[in-house]
Structure prediction request, 435 residues.
Amino acid sequence: MSALLNLGALGARWEAAPAFARSGRVVSVQGTLLTADLPGARIGEVARVSGVGLAETVGFKDGRVLLMPFDSLDGVRHGATVHGTGTQPTAQVGEALRGRVIDGFGAPLDGKGPIVGLQSVPLHAPPPDAMSRSLVRKSLTTGVRVLDGLLTLGLGQRVGLMAGSGVGKSTLMGMIARRSSADVNVIALIGERGREVREFIEDVLGPEGLRRSVVVVVTSDKAPVLQLRGAFLAMAVAEFFRDQGREVMLMMDSVTRLAMAQRQIGLSVGEPPTTRGYTPSCFSLLPRLLERAGPGAHGGSITALYTVLVDGDDVEADPVGDAVRGIVDGHVVLSRKIAAQARFPAVDVLASISRVMDVVATPEHCAAARKVRSLLNTWAQNEELVRLGAYKTGSNPQVDAAVARIDRIHAWLGQGMHDAIPFSDTLSGMEALLR
Prediction:
């Protein structure tokens, strides 16, 4: 199967193909959902609707097929012909994707011409068997001091990046993409504002980061089924490089918008809403996607960073964030309070955790990190007393140590967007804070 160029080209190719074995008619339209008579259709099958284009089978009701188009419903008419293709979702993957920006169907968006030499793989593949996965035993250097020093990541770890809007998620992703020790970056911008896509690619990621990255873009104005397809396409691309023995950094921004897209599909097909309107399929989707990342069975790994757009900055109350935390191997919380103090990256160290740090970092490194976290915790508990002048120096040695060092710790936690801190400098700087 040749590379998918775009929706128009794909539809034209099927238009020119021999007559389809199965066809039916549109009988109703409700919201973004088409109902059609199409015998033998399967969930996930792609169909072609006359006057609309391509659509995906998302459910069945009363003996009829529920279809959601990849594009606008403008132009659909009652009784329009629906052709079943018998095609299950596939992804086009290959080495030629490096340095390219593509859409949810793998079509190039960067104006660099067609992408050739790709191969077809299933879009929805099972995760590696639990007992055949390699273990997370090696650290991943990101060049970001707060992560490398206090929240050390491992090759094959899955991490949730929790934050509200406007506190620096995209900037932190770009810093990691430019400086991490991974071989390949796969970046999925799902449900992003169209205005911010070029800004991220050109200003945040930059030419250096783009050269070793594959960027999948499906903006917020696209259909929910296309947003889901973009996320699974990014995962399939990451799996291709992992199976080549590469160390892959997968970044998906954002899982929340992905869950919103699935919520829209679920509500359209009649699923009951649960917490904050999210349907059960939203929470079953997350492990199916997130569990595919991690160490491979035969070498290579996918280290995954999933951003979660926290509703109202309340990490504990957000249902998507809570579900993601239960699946991944650690989470990094960005704080609006810290960002308001002009400290970037605005990582709330005390609210964040890396569940693999103890096995990928040295005992000396872990001990130093625990001491710094202890100082931060002591300061957080006594900050108000100190600032009000209610604390008397000498009352508590731990508080005295925290007060003496807190300004240097805060300065050490901060870092410029274009700064790359060598791992050895991170360790020596952390040790200096404790002397």
Q: What stands out?
A: Residues 1-5, 11-20 have pLDDT under 50 and may be disordered.
